[in-house]
Amino acid sequence: MARHSMARHSGEWPREQSEAVLPSRLAPPLLRPGLVPRAAVLRHLTASADIPVVALIAPAGYGKTTLLAQWRRRDARRFGWVSLDEGTDDPAVLLTCLAAAVARAVPVEAAVLRDLEVPDSPARRRALAGLAVSVASAPHPFVLAIDDCHRLTDPENLRSVETLAANLPPGCQLALAGRTEPTLPLARLRAEGRVLDVGVTELRMNALNAADLLRAAGVDLTPRQVADLTAHTGGWPVGIYLAALAHRKGSPGRAAPVPVRGDDRLMACSFPHRGREGRIVPTSAAECTSRARNRVRPVSTSPRSDHVR
Ligand SMILES: Nc1ncnc2c1ncn2[C@@H]1O[C@H](COP(=O)(O)OP(=O)(O)OP(=O)(O)O)[C@@H](O)[C@H]1O
Ligand SMILES: [Mg+2]
Q1: Which of 203, 218, 239 represents a domain boundary (last residue)?
Q2: What pLDDT, on the 0 to 100 scale, is given for residue 124?
Q3: 289, 229 in Cβ contact below 8 A?
């Protein structure tokens, strides 16, 4: 195969790499029905396509992943998506995932795949260089989304992401979503107006958002109750959702048990005291949200300590 031939998508990838390119890492999450559309922040995102880096940084449960997936659905550009997990802070695994994600959005040089098959760092450097060339020569704008970017800690992985960011052509973006900002040299880019920050301020729900969420969850509260709930949770989306579940399942004042679903890590971490059969038992929606709020401080708007190189 000629060096400049292209691999178009991860399905064409060699079997050796199939362990890294797990669907759970490369597929954006499904959006459940009834989500609040977050129109203002989505408009802001789609209107900022000329800003190369988007940093969606906020504590757990602020709706970062949800917003990223909503943005992907709304934006006309293709998205390459990587969800980081315990296994992706390995340089070979991460670079393979990044290459597979980029390949879902734009053609990637086939030589990148061949270099990724060789388990040594010179080959990885070649693969990264080839991937950067593919990114720089993208035939159409695209977005590379990296979710749970706080898991990026290995210096080689940070360099890989930084290299791809540095080679994005106009109209392409790197979107980083995570609980904390990875140690990338974003301060200089920020100073140049090349980072769009979306944080707690933009992600927290107002009373109108909360009313939409509650309505979609089948919970009917008065405007005053919605306002109180919004204030009580600090607009923390998962707190409002948990309160909606507690209201829906129970009667006013004493909520019925809320089942802990295996897919809802946030419930499990917010409510460690489970009753029989793994069910959590908030006594009321107010207790539900106050417990949750005490576990994760919702507001963190102090300036970030950027790593400047
Ligand atoms: N737009 C929304 N509409 C309705 N509910 C939402 C919305 N955004 C978030 N939520 C609620 O908050 C929960 C957490 O959202 P999400 O997983 O997007 O948060 P996160 O910030 O990515 O959290 P983590 O840091 O744990 O990955 C969702 O499961 C949902 O219940
Ligand atoms: Mg998330």
Answers
A1: 203
A2: 95
A3: yes
232 inside domain:
yes
* CB of 35 sitting under 6 A from ligand 1: yes
pTM: 0.82
pLDDT tens-digit series, residues 118-174: 889 999 999 999 999 999 999 999 999 999 999 999 999 999 999 999 999 999 999
Cα–ligand 2 centroid distance for 126 (angstroms): 31
pLDDT tens digits for 239-259? 999 999 998 876 454 443 333
How many separate domains does the chain show? 2
Domain that holds residue 96: 6-203
Based on the domain organization, do 231 and 108 belong to the same domain? Answer: no
The reply to whether ligand 1 has any atom less than 6 angstroms from the CB of 65 is yes
Answer whether 83 contacts ligand 1 (Cβ < 6 A). Answer: no
Crossing angle for the helix pair 91-105 and 155-166, nearest 10 degrees? 20
As a residue count, the chain comes to 309
In a domain, 1, yes or no: no
E strands, the chain, are 6-7, 53-57, 78-83, 108-109, 142-147, 173-178, 195-198, 258-259, 279-280
> Does a structural domain hold residue 155?
yes
CATH number assigned to the domain comprising residue 191: 3.40.50.300
* Tens of pLDDT, residues 95-106: 999 999 999 999
